[in-house]
Amino acid sequence: MRVTTAFNRILRIPAATVVAVHFGTNDVTAHLRLRSRKLRCECGYVTAAAYDRSVRRWRHLDVGANKMWLQAEIRRLECPTCGVRTEVVPWARPGARQTREFENTVAWLTQRADKSTVARFMRCAWETVDRIVGRVVADHLDDTRLDGLVHLGVDEISYRKGHRYLTVVVDHDTGRVVWIAEGRTTTALLGFYDALGPERRAQIRAVSMDMTSIYRSATEQAVPHAVICLDPFHIMKWVNEALDRVYSATPRADFDREVTGPEWRRTRTALRTGVEHLNDAQRDRIRLVRRNRYQLWRAWDLKEQFRQLYRSVTPANAAAHLKKWCTRALRSRIPAFRFLVQRIRKYFDGVIAAVQWGLSNSRVEGVNAKIRLINNRAHGHRSVPALTASIYLCLGGIDVPLPTQT
Fold this sequence. Notes:
Strand content: 15-25%
Distance between the termini: 26 Å
Number of strands: 12
Shape: elongated
Number of helices: 15
Structural class: alpha/beta
Radius of gyration: 30 Å
Order of helices and strands: HEEEEEEEHHHEEEHEHEHHHHHHHHH
Largest sheet: 5 strands, mixed
């Protein structure tokens, strides 16, 4: 069997034939000839007239311990729309110096490891891996990712010191990241809604977020029909902060026995623990608080009643339960909880919507944790587009095929 025949069967380069093979000291170069005489532009324009010609080579997957290169004569064409452009070859993406198989392998590995490790394994530069990720994401990420969005989650994440933020939009139904924009501004989220267009905006039913007015105003402006669900975690944080203020204002010396500092701190732990998770010793501490500092126990009891809103109350009874809770909190005459009632009433509809729709930002927070991992394992990214491309590659639902997959 001839060497060229063997490499034609091994490489299986689309729309090209291996006409010669050169073996170097540490590499192998396969010389290709395109089968088609027609030249194709990136925009789809096809012509038979060549503007000029040159020789170019592309890095391919290694053959054994040797680097593999593909070399071919490439032509330029004069496109009436784009001007003078290099023709598109079937084995590589436009502008790339690596083949699709090489780039897909790099992207698949980058989904699972840091870029430095991938660069060492693939025997290429770190900057090469970074550029490959950008090209693969641009090739796979299209406007169809915004189709069929119904339930969304919006949050921000800090990616660098100095209050550098990204706005992240997640599809609750699939868990995919569908939009990333630099900044924590109304404009950042409005850009997402503008990209959706009127028809796809009309399909959105609910959006979960925290209590910041930045994203809420953008959502009310772009999709006024959508229900805004306020994250239960942030609401419970308010409740626990009110409980902490009551705890801090309660003197420990008024108990029926002397309470040491560690014991008093363990009492705070018992107050913050959910009633279903209390052990016997913590239950005894709660009973002691009730006997000696009733106002502190009352604050704990209000906290537990509020937790039932997310644990056992049916969506149909959520509004009635919260109204009764607000009445009890006001009657307690505890300043911290009276102030909390004012905040809850301001966001009453959003709190109830989260219960009725069963949405929270827990999925978005999980995505944010993965984004931090992506950023940390790279020891930071040199630019926002580089970080954005890595996030889309790992969390955007991009399925990169390996050359070994059939």
